[in-house]
From TrEMBL:
Entry protein name: Secreted protein
Region described as Disordered: spans on this chain: 82-106
This protein's record includes keyword Signal: yes
Signal peptide range: 1-24
InterPro entries xref list: DUF2259_secreted
Biased composition (Basic and acidic residues): 82-96
Source domain of life: Bacteria
Keyword Signal included in the entry's annotation: yes
Amino acid sequence: MQYRQLSRLSLLAVMVTMPNLAQAGDAAKLDIIGFSKDGGIFAFEEYGIQDGSGFPYTNRFYIDTATDKFLAKTPVRIRLDDENSSVEKARSKAEQDGQNLTSLPDTELRKNAGHTVAFNPVTELFSDPFKVIVNPRPVFPALDTSLTITLQEIPAPASETCNKMGEIKGFRLTLAEDKPDAKPELLHEDQAIPTSRGCPLGYSIGAVQTFYPDNGKPVVAVMISVRDVGFEGPDYRWLAVTKQR
């Protein structure tokens, strides 16, 4: 049965009538591709096998770090409706489509990958999912002030599609520098839940990527893991919040 073709109400009916069904949701793998040379664009990919359908999928995101908005005609979303096809085939098509749409080859982006200064996979059981404190560059002794990134789950109105799916949540994200009298800077606060995010039940900080271009402002990209309603269990997907500093 193909999950994305089910309505949320149909999904709920299946879950209610099959309470003893072993559940195994789909946790998308994350590939932090990197930045454009000047740090103006950040790209990442999530991919995996869709629960329920067994179809390989990949989603590629290209973000303008000055505005924290998607580039025109992106994200690139590929799903191969053939459970005998491969994730590698889907990813290859998405890479080619992304390059055609943005004129940014992966070779340039990966060359400017920056630094992963925090990483908490969804399988980590003891780390704080809502707060990280990082040295923004692997330089010791540190040249930069440390950054404290804090995530807070907030109530969000549920769309009709998400009714009876649980407590739907949005999030607020702040960044604070370790300086006297520094106040947290608001990076993101949901006013509404975009349809593309599905029915989110929770969030956690999954990774922090930084980049210091030779000519341009330093950039931080906070990767947020989104726990969503899936067909066979909770699904995990990724989003990013970017900030030039």
